[in-house]
Amino acid sequence: MSSDREAILGKVRAALAPLAERAALPDWDSELIRLRTAQPPADPAALFAERMKAVNGTPMHSVAELVAMLAEKGWRHGYCDPALWPRLQAAFADGFTVETSFDRTRVDDFDFGITAATAAIAETGTLILSDSDTSSRLAALAPWVHVAVLDPRTIHADIGAALAALPKDPNVIWVTGPSKTADIEGILIEGVHGPGVQVALLISA
Amino acid sequence: MSRQPIDQFAATLPPEKRKSVYLSAKGTEEKRSKLLHDHFNDPDLLRRRAGEIKQHVVENLDTYLPAAEAALVANGAKVYWAATAESARQAVLKIMRDRGATKLVKAKSMVSEEIELGHFLKKHGIESLETDLGEFIIQIDDDHPSHIVRPIIHKSRGEVARSFEREGLGAYNDDPETITRRARQFLRHKYLQAGVGMTGANFVSAESGRIVVVTNEGNSRFCLAATKCHIVLVGIEKLVPRDRDLGLLLNLLARSATAQQLTVYTEFVNGPKLPSRPDGPEEMHVIFIDNGRTDVLATECRDILRCIRCGACLNVCPVYRQASGHAYRAVYPGPVGAVLSPLLAGDKFPELADLPKASSLCGACNEVCPVNIPIPDLLLRLREKGKSEGAPLASVGTPGMGAWALLSTQPAAWKAALFGGKLMNVLPSKLIPVPALRAWEAKRTLPAWRGGEFRKWMKGRARPPGAPKTPNGVPSGPAQSQGKP
Fold first, then answer.
1. Spatial contact of B314 and B364, defined as CB atoms under 8 Å apart
2. Which of A53, A116, B230, B276 is found 20 to 30 A from B292 (Cα to Cα)?
3. What DSSP string describes B187-249?
4. Residue B173 has pLDDT above 60, yes or no
5. pLDDT tier at B479, thresholds 50, 70, 90
6. What is the pLDDT of residue A48?
7. Residue closest to A174 by CA, chosen among B95, B220, B7, B205
8. Helix, strand or coil for residue A189?
9. What span, in angstroms and rounded, lies between the C-alpha atoms of A120 and A150?
10. Do the Cβ atoms of B249 and B50 come closer than 8 Å?
11. Are B4 and B311 in contact (CB under 8 A)?
């Protein structure tokens, strides 16, 4: 292995040695990736909600709205981050079974999972989940519905801003709409391995 | 004249298959182009900058590789180096055995195709399961991907349904949604049983050691949520200098590959999971793979190492659209494959020496490339290499140019040939004596002649006073553009 390291780096150095000069690292302006239509968002939360809908995501603004949707669809068994549950519990009527630990041996039992989002990106309708804030990666992925509880004050304007503020965390994932594929004849199908319904619940902490 | 292998393959493609590959590639290309131009004032400038960044990385790998290694180690990852495919396979096997793991779930990775990992692991008693829907179907069919981003672009829903039926995944049903739900149900339990999750890497930041993996399906995320050990396979060219540069590259990748603003899941992996969290890998192993890349780096074709595997050059290529991916007989199809595959083949270059000729050099691949790789230039360099090394495949389907060279260097012969050509204009098709010429002429209608004749104009044109006569009798100087034909 270590001999492979020396072999590779040796070959790299030998390959580059004849170059009279090497390509310089260009400095590029953040303006370059600003969308043509971008305005400084007056209301990042409104823009986020609009953009999230455009990628078939489901923004919601109250726990009651969420509970109504879950009840209507018959999605009554779920997981909730134990830190969030005290805030949400009151809105969940009888008939719901909500667990605060995700048992991976019963992955099919869970219709929904509720976890905390770290932040979001308005321009793309993207949720940002980092390990420090996500109580269970599996609960945020395996159930048909994922609900990310998002504080509207944490929304970044665009990708550049979100990258600049990337948390120092072992794992950060940007989620832009529900899981999807177009592998079979280019036909769009949602809910492949991850959620078929991706909710952002915009409520202030 | 014998046909190039790629033409021979294209001729055997069933018409409905050709049509579906054509329409799918064309559709994606049109959406890519529209999205980029709708979103950005100057999308070409994005491509050029991204190309410069990647070229800079390629030409400074001696700095960036050790920097990335140090950052990864600082993040708690273990770093391995594999000079060859065999070395990479052995590294994976050793990690599996050290953990006593017999099951591996993997997300899509082109480099894993390159090193033929699946078959190797199977031989050593390890179940390695593809989790990307398209790659899963490729695996159960023991087939090969025919597109970098859309591996089963060559398969119909009916074929997929038959494969699922054969594998015991339910009675025949060709509804794509039903197929997808069945795969979802089958694969989620496989993730949970597996000891190790494997992904590729779309980018690795040399600055922070962040590994960036993008998927739409969420399968790489599932690998990293369900398993306790993460193996990352990464080609040594996948580095970017700074996290900030990802802003440019992620914007380009999603639009170029699938015409999306962002891929659904963009994951930044910065080491093993937090001890306080239940899910995710406790170990992270990163294998840097050379497998011929340093040989490419030593050639004048090193620009191909900028490639971020988006597949846009496949979608736009008139040859790919007609021939589909298997025609290229290698892991990487399309224009990028026509450059990369023969180069990565090493000693076996002559076996793929025809691929650089599978192009009309129209330049569309260069125009769509998110990192602005001058693919047509590289194809020409490889044609030259094939010819100069005397690879027989480099000449298949090429007309003899000797007669042409003779003709175009003898003025009298040239003029006679032109006169012959002129005759074709007036001769009725039926009277053309040579069958091939007759067929050629019958298929082509010349537009109505407009304007004068260049030679007449040239001859009758007065030289500006005092202009020196050049050796071949053509007046030189700026006055040349003043005359009107």
1. no
2. B230
3. HHHHHHH-SEEEE--SEEETTT--EEEEESSSHHHHHHHH-SEEEEEEETT-EES-GGGHHHH
4. yes
5. very low
6. 97
7. B220
8. strand
9. 8
10. yes
11. no
List the one residue out of B466, B484, B454 whose CA is nearest residue B475: B466
Residues on chain B touching A14 (C-beta within 8 angstroms): 298
Question: Contact B51/B371 with Cβ under 8 angstroms?
Answer: yes
Closest residue to B217, CB basis, from A107, A171, A193: A193
Instruction: Collect all residues of chain A within an 8 Å Cβ-Cβ radius of residue B279.
Output: 136-138
For the record, the structure tokens of B249 come out as 């590259």
Q: Is B431 exposed, middle or buried (0-12, 13-18, 19+ CB in 10 A)?
A: exposed
Of the candidates B132, B177, B251, the beta carbon closest to that of A159 is on: B251
Interface with chain A: mutation pick from B265, B274, B306, B372, highest number of A CBs within 10 Å: B265
pLDDT per residue as tens digits for the range B361-386: 999 999 999 999 999 999 999 999 99
Contact B418, B456 (CB under 8 A): no
Which of B27, B38, B468 shows the shortest CA–CA distance to A185?
Answer: B27
ipTM value for the complex: 0.97
Q: Which helix (H) or strand (E) holds B29?
A: helix B15-39
Whose tokens are 């006679």? That residue is: B416
Across the interface, whether the CB atoms of A192 and B216 are under 8 A apart is answered yes
Tokens of A31: 């303006």
Q: Give the residue-averaged pLDDT of A181-192.
A: 95
The mean pLDDT of chain A is 95
